[in-house]
């Protein structure tokens, strides 16, 4: 990549991270070892939750959470249309259908006012998405979910380190999903985690990530197979407890395990989370101060009772007052070395969803209006003050 090109996001890896990974590589455990449990405990503690279940990706985390919620064939899951494909796909993997509720026009998060109309007797779970890192209206969403007896799975892939009414994201829903992809607040390369206070949900997800297998004696269902078969010579001599080799596949699970190598990186990264989030907030404040005065730019709205973790900074272009199209602005900024992007193409407009569910343009006007004018500008902790100034100058020059 051209050194003068500023990407929309980039990981921040230092010598401490490299040393942590090297230590894991020299240890006795590359996978299924002590660093996985340590990372789970550390993230759960930071999120204010009882359990952490680490998995291979954020998508795997959504899949596991939907499975724990009891999602299956014939069920429906509701999410926002402005999100990455994984928010809906976790339900599809289990044979369920996806329904959408439109977004708020200011926060771009699921609108609780549109949620209840999307609920049917088949609804099993709601997946609100903390867009850009700002928490959704969780009190309102939880109240609607309780009224209808459905689970809430908060997609907080953007929101590790965010707070809602003084509470950390992670203890606001039945289950909360984090992503540790390379450009997220904390990275394990690829990786994800579900946090929850519910013992039963946690047990289901731990088993689901490991082929549906358990070696927990308390969960065994075929105790007669747990020891050697009695013969006349050994009758009465077999122990009542399962043999150390014995395990049971009780469900059709997946190999969604994360490695100790990845969790070593995650633990090192997690120690820097406060610094990473504060730098993201500094950059976001600078962008807002610079862009708010432009007559053709709409800066992100932030609710006073929550603090965003600022995974992304999304501008909206006032195209009715401009002579350029969004594509022209995008291409010109890329040519100037500014790695702008667009997050996200509404999920209901993706070909698979159109073909399977008959969704189309016009179904969710707020999501579509957002998408038609959205532009993501670079935001990551290692962005320097000079690079931030370059982004601001280039955007203002291009939209003038």
Order of helices and strands: HHEHEHEHEHEEEEEHEEHHEEEHHHEH
* β-strand number: 15
Distance between the termini: 28 Å
Residues in β-strands, percent: 5-15%
CATH superfamily of the largest domain: Type I PLP-dependent aspartate aminotransferase-like (Major domain)
**What is the C-alpha radius of gyration, as a whole number of Å?**
23 Å
Give the spatial strand order of the biggest sheet. 1-9-8-5-4-2-3
Average of the residue pLDDT scores: 95
CATH fold-level topology of the largest domain: Aspartate Aminotransferase, domain 2
**Spans where pLDDT lies below 50 across 5 or more residues:** none
Helix proportion of residues, in percent?
25-40%
What structural class results from the helix and strand content? alpha/beta
When the domains are counted, the total is: 2
CATH architecture of the largest domain: 3-Layer(aba) Sandwich
Biggest sheet record:
7 strands, mixed
What is the CATH class name of the largest domain?
Alpha Beta
Overall shape: it is: globular
